[in-house]
Specification:
three-stranded antiparallel sheet, Transferase(Phosphotransferase), domain 1, globular, six-stranded antiparallel sheet, 302 residues, Phosphorylase Kinase, domain 1
Amino acid sequence: MLRSNDATQLAKQCAGRVGALIDGKYRLDELLGAGATGAVYRATNVWAGRECAVKVFHYEGENRETALQRFVREAQIANRIRVGGKVHPNVVDCVDVGRDRDSGRFFTVQEFLRGETLDAFLHTAPEHRVSAVEAFALMMPVIDAVACGHEAGVVHRDLKPENIFLVEGEGRPVAKVLDFGTAQLSDARLTGSSDIMGTPAYMSPESFMNARNVDARTDVWALGVILYEMIAGKAPFGVGAHTLYAIMVEIASKEPASLAATGEMRAGAWSVIRRCLERDLNVRYADARVLQVALDEVFTAF
């Protein structure tokens, strides 16, 4: 985590790059955000005259090579999630990866998305929630994208409302999955067993014990947490908890309140979400495709 002075200095450095030309063709037009590893800019491909988003890697600390591998691999992973021979329409499209010839900095280029995160959407929604029908309608394409990822050997590991982006579409928003920076590939693992990867309130119980060995079921857990939060207006675990340990205790022991008992959804639909939140890995849905089939059955009944 960056200290405030370091963060301020880094933000100034990143802002100073606005106007620069990356790799001779990507003009950085606006700083959108900066973190310890890299900065994201709204940019223009001046050759094609097309707006895009450019991430520039700038991390120089410990384990730089591992951080760089994750940075570059994020683009490679997103491009693995395909349907009909193309990148899944509900996954952010990464169109280029390279190294700037002048600065030597690595960068990735993604489609530029206009809209807001699911997190921002829920914050402005009445009581911070939507109906079960709307939640399922928004999330079913996301679940399909995650399922295609599972079939390609990709476990996202950090699914949360901040990593689901709602793009302005015709009639209803189109959801896209973002940020594969902590994703795990079945054929290439960078995570040590003691690493904690993800955002605590959305992490499965097994994620806290051995992050290296998590599988598709950890994404199923996160999808269940997201659906619960969308319908209830609050997450099932960690609300009001101020420490990582307190969140871990809730996830390990607390039973989520039934959304069927409160009348917020039908019993059949609640049983699907509840099964996503099973601590017993043998009971939880095996992957997002199995979850999708189960949700499809109850969704058609609405």
